[in-house]
Amino acid sequence: MIHEVTPASRLDWETPGKRLYHVPFTLDGTWGRIRVPVCVICGPRAGKTIVAIGGTHGNEYEGPVGLKRLISELDAGALIAGRVIVIPVLNVPAFAAARRESPLDGGNMNRVFPGRADGTITSRIARFVSDEVLPRADVVIDIHAAGDTYEIARCASFHLVEDAVQLAAIKETALLFGMPWVWIYAKGMGTGLLTEYAESLGKITIGGEFGYGASTDLEGVRWAHHGVLNVMRHHGLLLGAPEPLLPHGYDRQRLVASTDLDAWITAPVSGISEPLVPLGAFVKKGQPVSVIHDFERIDAPGTEIRANTDGYLLVRRFRAQTAQGDVVAVVGQEVR
């Protein structure tokens, strides 16, 4: 049974057992409610708390589907200790509209943290997570995909943080997803990221790109579901060793970095983007990785986009229509 709780602070975070909630948020200008699903599962004794969140952006589906499977599979009897908090869909209005941002207030959930109690609905949902969920966490997992704009090499991801102990724990946890790539990516992509806020609280914080194309990637759902189980095993919530999740065809996981946002390659012109090399390929500096075609000038060659360094192609433009200034490629270097 799913319980609706008002106010949200009345959720039972502590009692052993499994509880499913709808946390209601009053719509701006009407008497209706947006209901955010939250699952709380507490083991029989104290331990670490794992928080797993999907649907921070509304058109990214591997997280919601994988976490819904996790909720169905887990019961309190499986936990030997600790607590797991699962929010399969965080930005419910955006998810319902199949959009990155909420149609109610234009809010990008991943740009409003820590949120405001007196803000619009996106900001108020973020404030609930900041006040009630993240302070209880030891590990925070925010599962993303590339929506319908980019294709990104399937990766668990994290930022560099100053605390060496926290950074080592983050790297160790990111590898548990068994994804082909573990990406150390750039800070400064905008204010209010969920992961950056959780990092600032000292949490072991993992992001990731589990699919693309506003689809539901088969491997991405598997990584979202079984990757979180691996994290729970590693951190003492479940019995057993983490299971191997690296797909056939990959010799190893690669730790790659592209931490300078200014080095991400943007389009010098507008047009239609054509990829020239597959995602994940090793490229050399100066090698063409895509072409942007101007169809008002069918007599002119396209504009070549060249790799700005040796490394692996981690991001490519997926949506063909490209505007000047759009990111069209990111090349990352392997970290030994």
**What's the SSE pattern?**
EEEEHEHHEEEHEHEHEEEEEEEEE
Give me the secondary-structure category: alpha/beta
Rg, Å, rounded: 20 Å
Count of alpha/pi helices: 6
Distance between the termini: 49 Å
Q: How does CATH name the architecture of the largest domain?
A: 3-Layer(aba) Sandwich
Kindly estimate the percentage of residues that lie in beta strands according to DSSP. 25-35%
Question: Mean pLDDT score, rounded?
Answer: 96
Give the CATH superfamily of the largest domain.
Answer: Zn peptidases
Q: Which stretches are low in confidence, meaning pLDDT under 50 for 5 or more residues running? A: none
Structure description:
This protein is an alpha/beta fold and 336 residues long. The chain is 20% helix and 29% strand. The protein folds into 2 domains: 2-258, Aminopeptidase, CATH 3.40.630.10; 263-334, RNA polymerase II/Efflux pump adaptor protein, barrel-sandwich hybrid domain (OB fold (Dihydrolipoamide Acetyltransferase, E2P), Beta Barrel), CATH 2.40.50.100. It contains 6 helices and 19 strands. The strands form 2 sheets. It has a 15-stranded mixed β-sheet that branches. The chain has a 4-stranded antiparallel β-sheet with strand order 16-15-13-18, with no helix packed on it. Strand 8, helix 4 (164-174) and strand 9 (181-185) form a beta-alpha-beta unit. The radius of gyration is 20 Å and the shape is globular. The chain starts with a strand and ends with a strand. The mean pLDDT is 96.
